[in-house]
Amino acid sequence: MTERRSVNARTPTRQQHLAPLGATLAALGMTTVSLSGQQLIELPAQDRPIAPVFEDVYRVGALEGDRWDAFGRVGGVAFDGAGNLYILDTQGMRISVVDPEGNLVRQFGGEGEGPGEFGRNAADILQMAVMRDGRVAVFDYGRQGFTLFRADGEFERSVPLREAGARYVVIAGLQAYPGTDRVVSTTEVDHPLEDDPPFRHVLGYDLNGTTVLTDTIAIGWEPSGGARTFKAVLRAGVLPGGGVAYTDSSDYRIKITFPDGQLSRVLTRSFQPRPVTDRIRNAELARARRRLAQREEAAERSGDPMRQAAAGFQRARIESMEFFPEIPVVQNLRTGWEGIVWVQRWHDEASGGTPIDLLGADGRYLGTLAPGSTALPSAFGPDGLVAFLEISELGVASVVVRRLPEAMR
Known about the structure:
By secondary structure, this protein is mainly beta. It has helices at about 20-25, 280-300, 305-320, and strands at about 30-35, 40, 50, 55-60, 75-80, 85-90, 95-100, 105-110, 125-130, 135-140, 145-150, 155-160, 175, 180-185, 200-205, 215-220, 235-240, 245, 255, 265-270, 275, 325, 330-335, 340-345, 355-360, 365-370, 380, 385-390, 395-405. The protein has a six-stranded mixed sheet with strand order 1-2-20-19-18-17, with helices on one face. A five-stranded mixed sheet has the order 3-26-25-24-23, with no helix packed on it. It has a four-stranded antiparallel sheet with strand order 4-29-28-27, with no helix packed on it. Strand 19 and strand 20 (about 265-270) form a beta hairpin.
């Protein structure tokens, strides 16, 4: 049998007493069990449908190349505490700030080797986090460190990840901790020049000093063997009180931590991983080859030898793909501005989308958005603001901002 459970970041040292919450959950048909100071909360097995009714606020993204919102490749979006949206264009290597009415406020960044600029060689994997006060932290793989910008877009300082000669890391997702100069990895941190460790970390990066102080927020389970396709994802999201919600398992287990990293509770549903069949393997290989053909075409047009070499490496990797024996239930996870956890589950492609569960970090099950009713938001902001990234058939990137109803915040 395939192992599915994860390793906890730390062993809790104090008992937690949450009887009032337990009584509330029982009244809703949910089961709660205390395990070594942690709560295991079994959420309902049947979906309770939620009909999403979003208010459209604005859309940015243009086909014309001379407009400010003609984005090359949107690598990330995030909101600040005033509801301004920050859009990282990794092709243009600049950040655009848009006010709550959809008007351009400022742009900053750019290509180059100077302060506040980014090199072309690693532009595709720049990652951005936005603080509540409007300051911005960008992780630059090429420099192995963070570039910090003030709220007015001016360059503040650079903070190297660690001393020269240390191992390289790739950070594929970032989120800012509220009220601090600290950011968190929301996906697995990769070490491209080293063997993968037998565990996966959710890492925090303190940007206050002259070098980045890195600490482990949670340790996730690492499946054994070299298979990567359908491997259980590690996804994390910051909660308003300072803890995180994360998933690392093939089955449905959403883990909630205290601010000190101790595991507080685990939210489960009874869905089981689906076995990977030959039909599923062949469909995934065909999908990967289609995506690769698009990357190869773009790399050829760019004339960039590094992008062309990366596409060649990716082809070799696809042709030697190894498959995990089952498809994990949870495909993605994000946390809203006020702490609601959005959990995207796997679903058959024929359904036209994936279901998304909305959970309270305290253990409440709010309901499920039906497959095809909405995508998972790319960013959450104050007052129910959410941003969705859309790519047209012509490859034009747009960012659509909507507002959530009160019940979904």
